[in-house]
Amino acid sequence: MRDVSDMDLLSGIDLFEQFGADDFRKLADASETLELIRGDVVFGEGAEADACYIVADGRIAISNRSFDGRESMVAIMEHGDLFGEMGLFDGLGRSAEARALEPSSVLRVPYDVLRSVWESSPELLWSVVRLLSQRIRATDEALADAFFLDVTGRTAKHLLELAGERDEFEIPITQEELAGLVGASRERVNKAIASFLRLGWIEQNERAYRIVKRRELEIRSQ
What whole-number distance in Å separates Cα of residue 212 and Cα of residue 209? Predict the structure, then answer.
């Protein structure tokens, strides 16, 4: 059986919330930890899918690339986040690339062991329905943001997401990656950040930022 930390990581995943102790032991025994350095690719877009992953430490970028090499970052996964599960349900290849943004550890959970748990206890599949509903809601929200929010609004929203509950934070990605996350050019995102600095909503010290007026940022992100 894997160590206790793996069991804790697995038990914190919403998709597995109805699993019993034996199910978690089965998952833990079949899982393996991958140690990554910045730039390591967990899987590429279009690759065959046979496992999902949970972030134990570090940050993983989920992104797509256009035919000319431009990157659009879809999400940043942090401790306790699950990714790579879509292929488990549709049997298709990876819809995006997963890449380490910094030294990271991820727990690899093979699809086969998950299928065996659900096949033996189909009532547990309600958690799958809930997960897919959450994904649809997140997609709807992203589409609404792209339609209703300008670049400045989307930049404010992503800065708040990167900060979380903290007032002092660092942006763990490059300017190009942040621009891909916002869905705009680097120049326009930098212009938006410069406006927040000028207004006194945030302060900057190299890559470190401090939120001074959170409420103003929240209003601008709506």
Answer: 9
d(C-alpha 154, C-alpha 87), whole Å: 29
Q: Return all residues near 177 (Cβ < 8 A) that are at least 6 apart.
A: 61, 71, 73, 101
Collapsing DSSP to helix, strand or coil, 214 comes out as helix
- Asked whether residue 201 falls in the same domain as residue 159, the answer is yes
The residue segments making up the domain with residue 172 are: 146-220
> Does residue 17 share a domain with residue 87?
yes
Q: Is the pLDDT of residue 89 over 80?
A: yes
pTM, 2 dp: 0.75
Q: In which residue are the tokens 């959970």 written?
A: 109
Q: Which of 122, 189, 128, 123 is nearest to 159 (CA)?
A: 189
Report the alpha-carbon distance of residue 126 to residue 18 in Å, rounded. Answer: 9
Which are the contacts of 203, defined by CB distance < 8 A and separation ≥ 6?
197, 209, 210, 212
Q: What is the pLDDT of residue 180?
A: 80
Where among 128, 156, 188 does a domain terminate?
128
